[in-house]
Amino acid sequence: MSEDSHNAIESRSDYTDEEIGLAAQCIAALLTRHGIPKYRFAVTVSEILGLSYSAGNRRLTTNASWSLEELKHVAEHFNETLEELVAFDKADGLLDASIVINNHVISCRIRLGNIVGQVPPGTLIAAEIDGAWRAMPAEARSIIPAHAVTRLLIEPIASRRRVAILDDHADTAQTIVKYMETAGLDAVAFSDPQTLFNQSDFDAYVLDWIIERDARRQTALELVENIRARNGHCPIIILTGQIGTGNANEENIAAALAQHNLKFFTKPASMPILLAALNSSFKTA
C-alpha cells in the first residue's frame, strides 16, 4: 500500500458502524457527552493515551483493537467508570438534552442528524447552547449552527426526584431551585449544612463548597462525608467560585472528588449543564 493510500484511509471520517468497532463507538459517545467536538476526538484520545495523532485517529475511525487498560484510562480521565463507558444506553447514539414545552424545561434524549441550514419552520432541530443540547422547532431564520433531530425520546418519571441545594447566598440557591423546578425536579434550598443533613434523604445534592455563617468559613467536606456514610451512590455536585480568591483549595477539592465520586463546576454554573449533569448521574446512581 502506498503512503498516499495509507494517509487517505487515516483521514476518512465516513466509516460505517460495521467498520468502526464497539469500543470506538463507546469512546465517541463518551467524548460527546463531555462536550468534546468531533474534530477534537482523535487529538483528545491521543493526548490521554500518549499516542501519535495517527494512532489515535485509527482507534476511532477503524476497527482497531483497544485494551481494557486503555478504555479504563480514557473513562477515568473523564471521571467515569469502565462500566459507565460501555453501558448500552450511553452507546446508542442518544445524547442528553432538553426541550421547552409550555414554558417548562423537559429532559429528553436525542439522536443528531446532519448539520442543517435553511429548513422549513417547525422542523425539529437541536443546537448546543452554553455547553448543553437543546431541541427546538426551527424558526424562519436560524442564526446558530444546528443539527436535524432524527429521534427524540422523553421518558415518563414515576415520581419527582428530590434535590437539595446548599448555598449561603439565598439568591443563588433560589435561582438553582427555580430552574430545577421548571425541569420537573423537587428542589429545596438550604443555607446551613447541619439543617440540610438533619432533613430526610434527598435523591441528589448540589453543594456550595465554601459556606460562611456567623463569621465562620467552612467547606462542605464534612457534609459530603456524612451524606456518603448513609448513601454511597447518590449524585453530589460541588460548586464554587472561590478558587481564584484562594478561599477554596484546588487540591482539597480534587481529593474530595476522587474519594467521594463527586462532580464539580465553577460558579456561576450554567443551569442547562448543571441539569444535564444531574440527569446523567441519576442514570448511573
UniProtKB/TrEMBL annotation:
Pfam families with a match to the protein in the record: BetR, Response_reg
Gene Ontology terms describing biological process: phosphorelay signal transduction system
InterPro entries hit by this protein: CheY-like_superfamily (IPR011006), Sig_transdc_resp-reg_receiver (IPR001789), Tscrpt_reg_BetR_N (IPR013975)
Domain Response regulatory, chain residue ranges per copy: 162-282
Annotated keywords: Phosphoprotein
Record organism: Rhizobium lusitanum
Residues modified as 4-aspartylphosphate: 208
SUPFAM superfamilies: CheY-like
PROSITE patterns from the UniProt entry: RESPONSE_REGULATORY
Protein name per its UniProtKB record: Response regulator receiver domain-containing protein
Gene3D superfamilies with a match to the protein in the record: 3.40.50.2300
Sections of the chain in a coiled coil: none
